[in-house]
Amino acid sequence: MRLSPETRLSPRTLRNAEARSALAREDFGGGNAWRTALRTSPAPDLPALVADRPVVNARGEEQGHFSLAELVALADAWSAWYRDRGVGPRDRVVVHIEDTFEDQVHLTALAQLGAIPVLLNGLMVPEYVLALVERCRPVGIYTDETRLARLEAGLKALDDGPRWIHTRRTAGLLDGEPLPESALFRHGADDPVVLCHTSGTTGVPKLVVWTHRQSVAGARFRLETHPEPADSVMLSAIAASHSGAIAFTFYAVLAGLPFVSLSDRSPEGLARAVRTHRPTIVQAFHPVHSALANSRPEPEDFSSVREWMNTGDSAHDTHIRTLIGLGHHLEDGKPVPGSAFRDGLGASELGWAALGRTVTAESPARPRHLGRPIPLADVTVLREDGTPPTTARSGCSPCAAPPSPPATGTTATPTTAAASATSGSPATSSTAPPTATSSTSTGWSTASAPTPATATRC
Fold first, then answer.
1. What phi and psi values does residue 198 have, to the nearest 5 degrees?
2. Distance of CA 26 to the CA centre of its chain
3. Core vs surface per residue 234-273: b (16+ CB within 10 A) or e
4. What is the spatial distance between Cα 276 and Cα 88, in angstroms, rounded to a whole number?
5. Average pLDDT over residues 245-260
6. What span, in angstroms and rounded, lies between the C-alpha atoms of 255 and 252?
7. Which stretches are tagged as biased composition: Low complexity (predicted)?
8. Termini Cα distance of the chain
9. pLDDT value at residue 344
10. Cβ–Cβ under 8 Å, residues 175 and 58
C-alpha cells in the first residue's frame, strides 16, 4: 500500500506495555531490528514515519510518508542492489549524503547483508571524509553529486580506493531481483553493524564500532522502562547519520512510535514541523534547542510538546527554562501548561546517554548538575591514574555497562580488522565472539571482546 502525501501518522502503530515487554525479551539486534519490528508490529501497513526531506523510493519517486512495511521493503530493495554489486559480509560501504532519513535506510540495507555501513555526516569537510575513507577501506561509496564533486580528485589519489562510487541518480531504479531470504546475515551478538563517528572537535573524527547487540541495548532498555502515552509522536531534529539518530530510530521502529525525521533544524524549520505534525516529544542537540529558545518561539506552535529531549552535551539552564515554559504536561489526565526537559549526557562512544536529569518548572536551578547515572550504566569519577579523586576535585568519567553495553569503545585508528571481525554467517548463527586484533604493520589496533565496554571522557 502506497501512502499518500496527506497521510497522517497513526497512533495504532504504537505498542502497548505488554507488547513492548514481550519484544524486549526477544533475541534481536541492530542487524535485524527492522525485520523484527515488522514481524511483530500490530499495524505494519499504517503510517509510521514522516521525513521532511522525501526519500527516493525503489521506483525513483520521492516519498515522505512510510509505513513500517514500506520502510522494510525499501531497505530490502537497496540490499538487493548492494548485493548485485558484490557487497557481502564484512565489507564496509561509506554513506556520505545530506543528512536525511535515507541514512537510516542504507544502514539497515547494508547491515542485514552482514556488510558494515560507515555513516559520515553530510557536513563533514572533504579532508576528514577522505581520511576516514582511507582508514576504513570501503568497497564502495554511496554519495550525492554535490559531495562527489568535492571528493572526486582526492578519491582518485588514494592508493587503495573504493571499487565503486554511486549516487542516487546513477543507482537508477531498484527493480532487480528480490532479496532472497538466504542473503540475510545472522549476526553474532558482537558483530559490527555500523560505524559512526565522533564529533571531530579535536581533529579527524574517530570511527566508533556499534555491534549487533549493543546498538539496540538502549532501545531495549527504553522499551521496558519508558512506555509512551497512546497519543505520542516523536520528532527528531538530530542529523540522521549521528549515533543519537541511529539509537532512537531503532527505538521508534521497534516501539512503533510515530516518528518525524527532520532535516531542517533551523528554528523556523522546527517550528513549522511541530506545527504540522504536533509531536509530543522533540529530540535535538543543544545547539538546536538553544537556537529555538533564542528565537522567541510562539507558544501556540509548541502547545503539543510534553517533553524535550537533549542528548550529547548538557544544555544550559537559561535555554531549558524558556523551552519548558512552552507545551504542556498531564495531571490527572488533563493538560496543564509547562513541559519537561530531559537532559542526557552521552557520546558516540556510549551509544546511549549515561547520565540523565529531568527539569520542570518546579526544579531548582542547578546549572552545574549533569544528572544521575541511568540504570543501564555504571559511572564514576577517577583521576587519570585510575584512583578516586578527593571530594570536589575534577577527574575523568569512565562508564561501564554489563552485560549488554550501551556502547562499544572508540578505536584510536579505526580498523579494517575490527570492522571485519564477524562471528555470524548467512547460514548459521555463531556465539563465538570476535577476538582481540592488532597489527603494527598497518597502524591500527583494537580489541573486540565480549567483556563490558568502557569509554572515558577526559
1. -75, 180
2. 21
3. bbbbbbbbbbbbbbbbbbbbbbbbbbbbbbebebeebbeb
4. 41
5. 97
6. 5
7. 407-458
8. 51
9. 84
10. yes
Are 93 and 142 a contacting pair, CB within 8 Å? yes
Q: What is the pLDDT of residue 455?
A: 32
% of the chain at pLDDT higher than 70: 83
Which one-letter amino acid corresponds to residue 351? G
pLDDT digits (tens, 9 = 90+) for 35-57: 999 999 999 999 999 999 999 99
Lowest-pLDDT choice from 17-31, 324-338, 393-407: 393-407
- Taking each helix axis from N to C end, the angle separating 126-136 and 145-156, rounded to the nearest 10 degrees, works out to 60
Q: How far apart (Å, rounded) are the C-alpha atoms in residues 142 and 350?
A: 27
For residue 210, give the H/E element and its range: strand 207-211
Q: How far apart are CA 271 and CA 297, in angstroms?
A: 8
Round to whole Å and give the CA distance between 2 and 285: 33
Tens of pLDDT, residue by residue over 53-96, are 999 999 999 999 999 999 999 999 999 999 999 999 999 999 99
Sheet holding 397-400, edge to edge: 378-379, 397-400, 454-457
Nearest alpha-carbon partner for 297 in 282, 312, 314, 315: 282
Residue with cell 576504513: 136
Cis status, amide bond into 335, omega within 30 of 0: no
- Measure the CA–CA gap between 90 and 87, rounded to whole angstroms: 9
DSSP 410: B
Nearest to 240 by CA among 224, 259, 222, 212: 259
pLDDT band at 7 (very low <50, low <70, confident <90, very high): low
Kindly tell me the burial class for residue 444, based on how many C-beta atoms sit within 10 Å of its own C-beta (0-12, 13-18, 19 or more): buried
- Can you read off the three cell numbers belonging to residue 411? 578505536
Residue 69 · residue 40 · CB < 8 Å: no
Task: Please answer whether residues 69 and 45 qualify as being in contact, where contact means their C-beta atoms are separated by less than 8 angstroms.
Answer: yes
Full-model pTM: 0.87
Helix axes 217-225, 243-255, angle to 10 degrees: 50
Nearest to 41 by CA among 82, 62, 7, 72: 72
What DSSP string runs through 350-414?
TSS-SEEEEE-TTSPP-TT---EE-TT-EE--B-TTSSPPPTT---BEEEE--SS-S---B-SS-
DSSP state of 406: S
